[in-house]
Each structure stands twice: as C-alpha cells, then as structure tokens.
Sequence to fold (290 residues):
Amino acid sequence: MNEHPTIAQAPPVSPAPAASATTPTIRLDGIYKTYDLGEVQVQALRGVSLEIYPGEFVAIMGASGSGKSTLMNILGCLDKPTKGRYFLDGKDVSGFSKDELAKIRSQKIGFVFQQFNLLARTSALENVELPTIYAGVPIEERARRAQEALKRVGLSDRAGHFPSQLSGGQQQRVAIARALVNNPSLLLADEPTGNLDSRTSVEIMDILQQLNDQHGLTVVIVTHEPDIAQYAKRAVEFRDGKLKKDVVIHNRSIAAEVLPTLPALDDEDAIEGIGTESPAPPSNGKPAQK
Ligand SMILES: Nc1ncnc2c1ncn2[C@@H]1O[C@H](COP(=O)(O)OP(=O)(O)O)[C@@H](O)[C@H]1O
Ligand SMILES: [Mg+2]
Fold:
C-alpha cells in the first residue's frame, strides 16, 4: 500500500516550513520491527508502507497486539525500525542515532499517551514546560510558552494544580499541552481516550479536531473504539503487524456538535461527585458509560 489516491488532501492551514503540500509528513517504506527476546523473536511489524500528508487526521485501529504502539513509537522517533525506511517531512530518519532522533522529535513531534505520563509532584505548568527545557528554549520564555499551550487546551486556570488535583480529562489536556509546547507539526496520540469516560473522550477529540482544523496540525491517533475513530478523517487498520485496511471516513463525527447532546457532567462534577448544584442532564441523555 504505497498510495491512497482516494484520500483528498486539503491544503494545510499552516504548512510546516520545510514541507510542501506534496511532501508527506510521514512516509513509511517497508517497515519491519522485530523484538529480539533471546529465545524468541516477535515480529511486531511486517512490511508496513504508509503515507500521511500535512493536515490529515488518521485513526490507527486494530486488535491488541497488532503492532499499533510499535508503529507509533517508530513514528514518534521513540524507537527505530529493524528494517525499512521512515521519512519524516521528507527526511530519512531511519538511520538516525538516538540523539538525532531525540532532537528531531523535540522539534517536530508531540506525543500523547494513554496513561497521561505526567510527573506527579510537578505542577501542570511545569509539566508542560519540560519539553521546552530539552528544546533549548530560553528560560524566560518557557513559562510563557507553557501558559500559552495550557490556554489552547482550556486549562489556563489550572496551571498551579498538581496532577492528583486534576480529573483524568484535565490530566490528558495537560499532556496535550505538553505535546504542543514546542509547536510540533505532527501530533501522535496512542489511545488518548483509553482511560476516559465517554463524554471526556469526546472533549479530548474536540481539542484534537480543533488543532487539526484550525491550526493545521497533522494528527495520528491509535484507538480500538470505532466511535472514536469516526472523529478522524481517515482510518487504517492493522492485523498481525500488517496494514489491512485504509479508508476515508465518511460522515465524520464533529465533537463540537456531539458534545451538547451528551449529559453535562463537567470535570469538576466528575471529581467532586454530582452535587446538588449540578444541572440536570438532558432528558434524552444517557449517563456516561465505559
Ligand atoms: N518491548 C517489547 N518487547 C518485546 N515484544 C514487544 C514489545 N513491545 C511490543 N511487543 C510485542 O509486539 C507485538 C505488537 O505489540 P504492540 O505494538 O504493543 O501492539 P498494540 O499496540 O497493537 O496492542 C505484540 O506481540 C507485543 O507483545
Ligand atoms: Mg498499544
């Protein structure tokens, strides 16, 4: 699968400086990944070729163990393929050293994890600031940039909170702000809603859709939930380390339209329990499930 001519490439709102609209943000060419465990070898990826263009929003699907996280780690320059080539913004990074990968990652990629991965004894603001330290942002600019990123996820008023003082949805928003703080052109999220209830999941998808639509950020998420994948523009499916399906999503869900139809249980209620002041959920609303 070296091509997907059915995918309509909308021009990116703000293309990455080095990339033209015809250069894929991601180009994988025959990627293999084998984990060598001594006695056994696990073939996690077996010849994956894939192109993702600026401004796309792709959902990666597939059963547990099909190679989704292995792929994301390679896309995110957290790991290297055993064989095959990875071109990031047109540049072949497959032969890069760990240091070179770390550098290009901090310049181009934001990564969001299922478990949020925030530092517990560190405020939201400081968590978001961390990648700016690695990227060499001047110290006087770090807090300003982190504040700006928190604002983009609607959490300006929680900058001083510790992760334990935030709901799961708020923690994931802090993690998204941390992923955005170095202005990446590519946002990768491995099961970002996997630990969240259904309403909060849609709130996270709303943020990702806004970043994609309004800021032209290329977004790739892993999810095993078809209704979450429905918020993307394109879905690819893995089976046993191979790409089995690649489709355009028709009748895409728009999170901003879905949210008003869901029970109005906000983050504060989620933490404090449903108080007497809580507005009644709409009569057609079902309680958040999962
Ligand atoms: N670090 C690792 N060492 C050895 N095997 C691994 C490692 N990570 C993943 N695997 C194996 O590779 C296969 C794909 O795993 P993974 O990419 O995590 O799948 P998914 O994210 O789709 O659940 C699985 O068989 C898994 O057990
Ligand atoms: Mg996984």
Notes: The longest strand covers residues 40-52.
